[in-house]
From TrEMBL:
It comes from freshwater metagenome. This is Unannotated protein. SUPFAM superfamilies: YjbR-like.
């Protein structure tokens, strides 16, 4: 089980990430590109970006008890994460993937280089 505090700690550990409100909830941005935010529709749910619609569909099919979507996000590369259903390691992976999907290529290359 993960919490909003875990989201904040893990997201802010990623390079060039800041916290800035988004739709009245905590949002996390890399170079001013939003990659994750707490969802205002339900407590303990996080919105994260994916690498595209195919990736989104794959994630939803693989982990339906942990990840979901709503009609609002149809056609958008986002999934909703039930924080109570993911452990800290899974959350870290989801945040890293979202960060990579939104970060400038050069920043991702710098992170991969070391």
């Amino acid at each position: 089980m993960s919490t909003e505090d875990d989201v904040r700690e893990l997201a802010l550990a990623l390079p060039a990430t800041i916290e800035k409100p988004s739709y009245g909830t905590p949002g996390f941005r890399v170079r001013d590109r939003l990659f994750a935010r707490m969802w205002d529709g339900e407590p303990d749910v996080l919105v994260v970006w994916t690498g595209g619609l195919d990736e989104k569909e794959g994630l939803l099919a693989a982990e339906p008890e942990k990840l979901f979507t709503t009609a609002h996000y149809d056609g958008h590369p986002h999934v909703l994460v039930r924080l109570t259903a993911v452990d800290r390691e899974e959350l870290a992976d989801l945040l890293e993937d979202a960060w990579r999907a939104r970060a400038p290529r050069r920043l991702v290359e710098e992170r991969d280089a070391g």
